[in-house]
Design brief:
CATH topology of the largest domain: Beta Polymerase, domain 2
Shape: elongated
Number of domains: 2
Distance between the termini: 53 Å
Strand order of the largest sheet: 3-4-5-2-1-6
Largest sheet: 6 strands, mixed
Order of helices and strands: HEEHHEEEHHEHHHHHHH
């Protein structure tokens, strides 16, 4: 473990030495597990590095700069998890995984005021480069921030999520009936699960209190989720065959309904019974009666 930590620390030192001499890079920080005190990095953790630059396109559209830090195996671009920007992911030699999130200097103030970004920064931040005192106000901003990974939903948010889920329950059933297994499974085990995990987060916060930490997007799910939820979720994912996808859909619907009814009861919200009933009835009539239809 210590050897693995040192490899990443060596990579951080190489990056910092290089970036200090690059005029357009005005700041750089480490976030995530390698900056956290709570649930810190383990042997399998990557390195999350945020670059603030006046020339973001260069780092997104070129790869030559990476070689100046260290030899690498793989690199590609994807969206950042929060912040609405892009990141260059790099797999350096020896399998060292680094996410370089690239932001403009001008967006820093807006980022600090963003709830999701504050939640990430509040878990830990390590300043590597700060040429313009960009991060002076971050500590004060974070000191006033109460870490709550999931707010209590408004009635509008709750109602929208419930209707979204039941709409896609019917939608995925149609794909399954058509024989589009890939699309059906992607919806049942992908999109619908994103709706389910948000509901599970709300449920946990309502049961445990608003300061209960549910992380985000299912991170550390087995540590914070309700025991019944963890027991039932096992039956909610499918193998790649028609019958298994159908069963996973049915189990996901049952779990979602139980949690949604508990949340609505606790918050004194009206549960969208009609959406549930209409979708469930359609699925029962069509997915069962027309199961052999291609």
């Amino acid at each position: 473990m210590e050897e693995h930590v040192e490899k990443y620390e060596k990579l951080i030192r190489k990056f910092t030495t290089w970036a200090e001499d690059i005029k357009d890079i005005r700041g750089a920080i480490v976030v995530g597990s390698r900056a956290r005190k709570e649930t810190p990095a383990d042997k399998w953790s990557d390195l999350d590095l945020v670059i603030f630059t006046t020339n973001p396109d260069y780092y997104l559209n070129n790869t030559k700069w990476i070689e100046k830090i260290e030899d690498y195996w793989i690199t590609f671009i994807e969206n950042t998890a929060v912040g609405g920007s892009k990141e260059r992911r790099v797999l350096f030699k020896e399998g060292l995984d680094v996410d370089f999130s690239i932001f403009t200097v001008q967006i820093l103030k807006e980022m600090i005021e963003n709830y999701e970004i504050q939640a990430v920064l509040n878990r830990g931040i390590r300043v590597l480069i700060d040429k313009d005192n960009l991060f002076n106000n971050i500590s004060n901003s974070l000191a006033d921030f109460e870490l709550k990974s999931s707010n209590i939903p408004s009635i509008k948010e709750f109602d929208n999520l419930i209707n979204d889920f039941w709409y896609h329950a019917v939608w995925s059933s149609k794909k399954l009936l058509r024989g589009e297994l890939w699309t059906a499974k992607s919806c049942v085990d992908g999109y619908m699960k994103y709706k389910l995990i948000k509901l599970i987060e709300w449920h946990a916060v309502i049961k445990k209190g608003e300061d209960y930490d549910t992380w985000h997007s299912g991170r550390y799910f087995d540590e914070w989720a309700d025991d019944k939820v963890k027991e039932d979720i096992i039956k909610c994912f499918a193998h790649y065959n028609k019958e298994d996808i159908k069963q996973a859909l049915n189990n996901t619907m049952s779990l979602f309904r139980w949690i949604a009814l508990e949340v609505s009861s606790e918050l004194n919200y009206k549960y969208p019974v009609s959406a549930d009933n209409k979708a469930t009835q359609w699925i029962e009539e069509n997915l069962i009666q027309n199961w052999d239809v291609k």
